[in-house]
Specification:
heterodimer, A: 350 residues, mainly alpha, 19 helices, 41% helix, B: 406 residues
Amino acid sequence: MRAFGSSLLLGLVVSLAACASVLGIKPRNVSRPFEHRAHSIAGIDCLSCHEGVARATDTGPLHLPDASKCTSCHARPHDTRPCGTCHGDAHTREEVRLARRHLRFSHERHVPKLGGQCVPCHAAAGKVDQVALRPPMAQCFTCHAHEGQWTTRDCDGCHVDLPAELARPSSHVVHEGDFVREHGVRAASARDLCATCHAENFCAGCHGVTTAVLPWKLAFDRPSLTGLHRAGFALRHSDEAQSNPGLCATCHDAERFCRDCHAKRARAAGVAMPGRNPHPPGWVRARGGEHGRAARLDPMSCASCHGGAGEALCVGCHRVGGPGGNPHGRGFSSALDPRRDEPCRQCHVP
Amino acid sequence: MSVATQSKIGAVRISAAAVLILLLPSESARADPLRLRGDALVQTRSPVGLLVLRGEDRLRPWLDVETVTWLGATTGETDPVSPTGDVLTLSVRSRHQGSGSEIRVGRMVVSMGAVRPVHVDGVRGLGRVFGGTTVEAFGGFPVVRRFDYRDFDWTTGGRIGQAVGDVAAFGASYALRRRDGASVDEEVGADLALTPAPWLTAAARGAFDLVTRGPTDALASISAQKDDVRAELFTAHRSPGRLLPSTSLFSVLGDFAATSTGSTLRWRAFPRLELVATGSVQVQGGDVGGQGIGRATLALDDEWAGTIGLETRRVDFHGARWTGARVIASVPIGLSLRLATEIELVRPDDPRGRGSLWPWALGAISWRSEDGWEIATALEGSSGPEHRESLHALARVSYAFDRSGP
């Protein structure tokens, strides 16, 4: 038994080693960040290299030093390649480029307020293992004006376009797991938080009653996107509806949405379907049959074909005094007036 | 030409006019940023196009406008090709920068607290009163497809909420919908979201129908995350009879609510491998069932640009009993090309003459340019309860214009 366990463990380790590359557990290339700390200790002012950044607004060049700036001090380079090939992480430079594109930020307005100091915001520059030089968002919130903007969800003051920035929410609202199912619960109490990234059209894509094309249909070339209506959902939508009672009606007006489509495809009651009855034998009997229980458990399925004018079929038997008896379930209660309101009048008013 | 066709053409004209009206001031004012996205989907079933426009102006940050319009054509027996279209949203928002209070006018989806979302032509306002208190209200006419407005249809509602820092937010909401002068829904709701610790979140909402005097739907979830593992417990309680409009005859059958309770577990087992499992138990009217989903996604690169995945699912509740499997693959070829495929097999326990296996497959290829163009085409084939064989071709042309950057 012990030998078997050892063999299993060995096999697992060998398999993992063999699949290490596929699973992404091989060590990555270690980048070499720029030696900001060494330059700072040597007493070199930031503006010596990042010339003009103190006057930079949210447009214009990035003020990243080029090789000529380096060679102005390092007169005899040890390599013929551009300095930035090895000194400085490409990721950091890309981060700066993205910040320029996605943020409204003016060094010209910030630097004088900090007495010309850069480190209060770019604290990472003083660390040996610095990776990212872009200050964290929490740094911005040390200013009261920004705190106010955070409270009022006014992100446009700094962010040009949050959705385009693909910024991952820093709060607890993460879109992981089966977020499609739980998003309604989140949106219920923090709709304005959702609205910082998602515009009106995002909600209307699913919740708009006039939606003609399901959002996933437009993204047919991106199968990794999750969603309720993906793949062959349309084929088995009746089974899906049965397995999640009431779920469809939380978005669709079950009475109209289903009935309109079924009528169009000749699947509704009253539309000619010669020789075809979708219900099993014994569905309606003199003493009830299966249809009563089925209707109570899944009234939307009934409404999807028998809604509207099709309700007359039910009223024929279940009207007051009719042979079908009382259709109301145990403990039924309603604020509607039986003689005035629909649908009560259909059965209660002779 | 039929009246219906004329009304559809009219709808298209109105939609086009709405888009033009929006385009003109945006272009003439050179708003910054201005965003435009157009998607045209051509299917062998019916072609449709979706046009998304957003306009903001840096000089007037308190004002923005957006619209989503779809335009298309359907095929029928009498009219070979019939144009159609509609406006999904068309709204103008004015926002007070200091307080975050705002008012929106036009066509929009209103999602307010625990009461159900509603698509309206009307007004919505949000006021931030003091200390994290918000007051919201809306009113208008429910949207009916193809501008088919109905007399005596109107809806109104509101929510009052309170936030306690980033730790808690809770509120109470109310909505009333009337159709043809009759009350369709009248709901009150309560919602709560908690984040007591960065790794722990909880949320709940519930709605009560005042017409049938019972709970409509209620959901609650609690989730915890540590490193690469996230676990969530959830429960949902829905009353199908109360979710129907109270004008429907089927809403009077009484309450046979369905409850679903389960858990989702997500584990990033390796940097390129993610595993997700969801299982739930469902109960309704003495019937007990459940469903479960397992999904594994393997990335083909560190950026997750390319993935392959396998998903299995088992459903066993009421008359719906089936087992399914789905395989997906999305592989980038160079910087602009992408190949994708999706294959699904479903085996119903009881075919009832609808076929013993329902296969569905799609193969797609897409191309994206650096200047905002995107073209994709696909072939979709299936066999299922409705059609023994079905084959469709799809093509999409998209263009995104964004003049928001410096």
